[in-house]
Amino acid sequence: MQEFNLKELGKRAIQLLVSLFVLLTVTFVIGRVLPADPVGAIVGELADPAAFEAMRQRLGLDLPLYQQFFLYIKALLHGDLGTAILTGNPVMQDLSTAFPATLELATLAVIISTVVGVPLGMAAAIFRDTLIDRIARVVSLVGHSIPVFWFGIVGLVIFYAGLSWVGGPGRVDTYLEGLVEPKTGLLLIDSLLAGDMEVFWSAVNHIILPACILAYSAMAYITRMTRSFTLEQLNQDYVVAARAKGASSSRIVVGHILPNIAVQLITVLAISYGSLLEGAVVTEIVFSWPGIGQYMTNALMIGDMNAVVAGTLVIGLIFMVLNFLADLAYVLLDPRTREAG
After folding, report:
1. Which residues, in sequence order, are CB contacts of 132 under 8 Å at separation 6+?
2. What region holds the ABC transmembrane type-1 domain (predicted)?
3. Which of 258, 248, 256 is nearest to 226 (CA)?
4. Ranges of residues in the chain whose predicted pLDDT is under 70
5. d(C-alpha 117, C-alpha 227), whole Å
6. Helix/strand/coil (H, E, C) string of 260-313?
7. Residue 340: which residues within 8 A CB-CB, separation 6 or more?
8. Contact 180/190 with Cβ under 8 angstroms?
9. 3 phi, psi to nearest 5 deg
10. Positive or negative, the Cα torsion across 270, 275, 276, 278?
11. Distance of CA 201 to CAs 74, 187, 195, 204, Å?
């Protein structure tokens, strides 16, 4: 049994930590040099100078930047991300409430984009230069070219305002809000655990359009990359040999090509998932989705940099961890990246 390349994994883990520290440093500095004024948001623009100065000292904004950064790191190591000006709650508490909504939306989006994008990409490669291939390429081009917010607005106008096929903005109908206890924070799961099917179907009705809109851009990328990977494999000798032995196209795809592109697909899906978590910001604004994107946007409007920096760190950390897990998948699934024991 071959052993994992632990040295290589250790190097990548160190790279992850270094990247996280760089992200933390850059985000903190940008948050402090932006012209936003958190003191004014707290005490009010008409407060007297003494109140301004007292609040600046209380927030530590009168200290040199390096001291502010040191104190922030020290608090961060103790799990303290500061207090949000927007809500008056600890930022950690706000994020624990907002992030599950983003996670639910992005997870459903990546499932939809994978279920559609992978088969479409493989079909486009197998039936190259046919109608299926042309459709796949047009779908990918449109998905890369048109902004998500435009799709979101058009989707609301057509499917919500025009046809009434889906729910409108928000996560659930207003009269159903707060009826289900948030055990996991994922409303679809929580409503099922509570046995409240009215809330469940309302949540499905509200999430399906933003999830599909968000999934489309990821699907375009997944389709294009899957097509490229499959085309590369179709030219390999083992495929030619399988065809010569009379293997059907479906058997070649499922039994030979798919296992050989699995590692590459994992990387693509990991990148797509991270991008969906990051790109959900625009979708959440369009659909008034109460996730981390909308939370950060509202915080940025009033200069609440504790909330903005913390939200950026959370999304950045998840993106880095997903890439690390993709690297780990290479070690686990690709024999060329393992060393003999």
Report:
1. 123, 124
2. 99-326
3. 258
4. 1-6, 8-9, 34-37, 40-41, 44-47, 279, 331-341
5. 9
6. HHHHHHHHHHHHHHHHHHHHHHHHHHHCCCCCHHHHHHHHHHCCCHHHHHHHHH
7. 2, 3
8. yes
9. -95, 155
10. positive
11. 45, 10, 11, 5
If you search the block for the tokens 């008409």, which residue do you land on?
A: 46
Pairwise CA distance, residues 192 & 104, whole Å:
14
What tokens appear for 11 in the block? 């190097």
> Which structure tokens are listed for 336?
């060329």
At which residue do the structure tokens 């109140």 appear?
51
Q: CB 268: neighbour CB atoms within 10 A?
A: 23
What's the pLDDT tens digit per position in 66-99?
Answer: 888 888 888 888 888 888 887 888 888 898 888 9
Instruction: For 6-36+81-337, give the CATH class.
Output: mainly alpha
Report which of 319, 335, 339, 341 is spatially closest to residue 263, judged by C-alpha positions.
335
pLDDT for res 205: 94
User: Which of 300, 293, 296 minimizes the C-alpha distance to 210?
Assistant: 293
Q: Which two tokens stand for residue 157?
A: 């106008």
